[in-house]
Amino acid sequence: MLALLLLALVVVPTSAAGAAQDDRPVVRVGTEGTYPPFSFHESGSNDLTGYDIEVIKAVAEKAGWRLEFVETTFDAIFAALDADRIDVIANQVTDNPERAARYGLSDTYTYSRGVIVVKSGTKGITKLSDLDGKTTAQSLTTNYAELAREAGAKVEGVEGFAQAAALVVQGRVDALINDNLAALDYLNTTGSDDIEIAGTAGDEVSQQKLVFRKGDTELLQQANTALAALKADGTLAKISEKYFKIDVSVENTGEADLSGGRAPRSDAEIVKDAAWPMFKKLLIATIPITIISFAIGLALAIAAALANISGSRILSGIARAYISIIRGTPLLVQLFIVFYGLPEIGIDLPSWPAAILALSLNVGGYAAEIVRSAILSVPKGQFEAASTIGMGYWQSLRRIVFPQAARTAVPPLSNTLISLLKDTSLLSVVLVTELFREAQNAASAAQTFFPLYLTAGVYYWVVCALLAAGQGRIETRLNRFVAR
Amino acid sequence: MTDTSAPLVDVRGVEKAFGDNHVLRGIDFAADSGTTTVLLGPSGSGKTTILRSLNVLETPDSGLVRIGEVEVDFAGLPVKGRDAREQTSRLRAQSGMVFQSHNLFPHKTVLENVIEGPVQVQRRPVEEAVADARLLLDQVGLAEKADQHPFQLSGGQQQRVGIARALALKPKVVLFDEPTSALDPELVGEVLSVIKDLATEGWTTVIVTHEIRFAEQVADQVLFLDGGVVVERGTSAQVIGDPSEERTRQFLRRILDPG
């Protein structure tokens, strides 16, 4: 039954995708969706937009591709490309020798330079060499993180520009290095004067390119042909000018001006715009994933608990190894292994099934011990009474033991369920857009995340409070037949 | 049908050890249909183990147990597997068991406890099982408690439900494992009188008990066990009234005149 469920999960999305009548090749685009003005969600709408998004759409039109966007954090984006979950990265990836050696890089579609951003009024940081011994906040796998490390700075890992900027404002790090365009967008969108651009990060102009797998030469060629055509017919310049007032797709065209972009909004407006999209994600992703994973996890837990107390050394050995591995490793690692590791051995699960598989296995490992002790809490005489009236193993479990074990198991299982609900906030690493990811998207578009994360927190809390209330009712029900 | 003159219960050479502890060292006895057999003996004598072996709650290491037409030779029984399960479950179905600590299902009503076996195991129609169960509950004097849960009953009432539950399966033999030992003294009488009624109604029973006076009244046959063997056997008048073995006399003295 478990296998069938998983199978159904795997099959449904694929067949749905296959139903569309379109013979253009599907190209999956990996992008952050939280990196304005390049890749982000416009406030109040769910549509992915930005300079990189418009560029890749224009490329697709020329090359005859059908695009599928896959949003992920920058630090997972190359892993996604390696694991064949995406075909191209469109996310302002800067050319450097390591990347050129490992991946297929397209022609340049953005020329930019890195800038050092500090808290307003900071003295003594104006160039890269000033960062020696200082701390900066960066996405760990970016080119800028590399620059900061080479300059002798300690690098704190963050997810996206807004988070890095917040750390700078709070004085928790000394500086951040990022693209001047991203920095200008932040200043423009937030209207903030808490941080300022202190100087350039080196003199070199960096070049941003589309990234393909090394072997995908055909896609790379098509992309380069398309980029050349877009440059020639002025499309690229037009997209660039829409965002930056200048053409960043060619070198040295002057200072960018982003003042015509998104206007600053108040926290109330930001929360108001994001509240409904976040609620929708709670209903269509967070809650269903929690329920399905809990159901499968509970089945696994019962199987593992029964195996553990079966008296068979092989079965109980397997159960104990499973429980030990699950409880001994972080959920985040488990998610990465299921999503990015399993494809290496040919098991390539889409996001949702991968998320559900990892969460189910996790819940199963934790709940197995709860179920085991609950079964053992049922007096031996109950098993004997059941078998003496002729019941077999499964029948006595189902009719006699489980209903009584439930009483012991419900409080700790409720804890597991509540933890699971909150653990779904990790799922953006396997490219599931759930409640928290939606909050991240909104936060990056607004360049401020505190009010939005607070909103997400309230949503989680309300659902958990409802679960706790449900637990109370179930406990009352199960305690009916016990003398007090 | 088998020979009607053959005893209903036949136990031969049953042995059982838990590790180094040899609990049963070759037990033989037989019980005719409609008779009451009482097993007496100090704790650790093996009396409960032999009773549980009849219901295969313990699996003897060797020996032969027959109830009615079902016979299992435990020496030749494989340890595991479908065949072993089928044989033991057929033998188990021949007897009903009443436990010292009733072991009623706490999440089910009195009536549900009684019909659980008939409906879930024997697949009898619910209406029929309920009608039978109500008769049985009436017989043990608990007709009006049918819809209550075990925790709402006194210990004696709980034990009487346990008896009704065992009878509901219409077993050939009813086994009682110290049915009054866990009860407050004032509740013992009501349970013993129900068991006495069963004997007069023609049920075949095997009873492990410390109630010597009760045993004297109801037993057609008394077995005194000690150290895993049957030390003395006979009518209650013989074994209780005029025991020939010193060990039996010692035991009876201790039980009847404690202190």
Folded structure, characterized:
The complex is a heterodimer of chains A (484) and B (259). With 484 residues, chain A is of the alpha/beta class. Chain A has 3 domains: 22-110 and 207-244, 3-Layer(aba) Sandwich (D-Maltodextrin-Binding Protein, domain 2), CATH 3.40.190; 114-200, D-Maltodextrin-Binding Protein, domain 2; 267-478, MetI-like (MetI-like fold). Chain A contains 17 helices and 13 strands. Chain A has helices at 2-18, 51-63, 77-82, 97-102, 143-150, 161-169, 180-190, 217-232, 235-244, 267-308, 313-328, 331-341, 351-377, 380-388, 393-423, 435-446, 450-478; strands spanning 26-31, 34-35, 39-41, 48-49, 66-71, 88-94, 103-112, 114-119, 135-138, 154-157, 175-179, 195-200, 206-213. Chain A has a 5-stranded mixed β-sheet. Chain B is α/β, with parallel strands linked by helices. Chain B has a domain at 108-170. Chain B has helices at 47-54, 82-92, 110-121, 126-139, 155-168, 185-200, 212-218, 236-241, 246-256; strands spanning 9-18, 21-31, 36-40, 62-67, 70-73, 95-98, 173-177, 204-208, 221-226, 229-234. Chain A binds chain B through residues 379, 381-382, 384-392, 395, 399-400, 403-404, 480-483, and chain B through 55, 57, 89, 92-93, 96-97, 99, 101, 103-107, 116-117, 120-122, 149-152, 165-166, 169.
End-to-end separation of chain A: 39 Å
**Mean pLDDT figure of chain B:** 92
What overall form of chain A do the CA principal axes indicate?
Answer: elongated
Helix content of chain A: 55-70%
Beta-strand fraction estimate of chain A: 5-15%
Discrete helix count of chain B: 9
Please work out how many helical segments of chain A DSSP would assign. 17
Low-confidence stretches of chain B: none
N- to C-terminal separation of chain B?
A: 52 Å
CATH homologous superfamily (4th level) name of the largest domain in chain A: MetI-like
% residues in beta strands of chain B: 15-25%
H/E order of the elements of chain A? Answer: HEEEEHEHEHEEEHEHEHEEHHHHHHHHHH
* CATH-assigned fold name of the largest domain in chain A: MetI-like fold
Q: Describe the biggest sheet of chain A? A: 5 strands, mixed
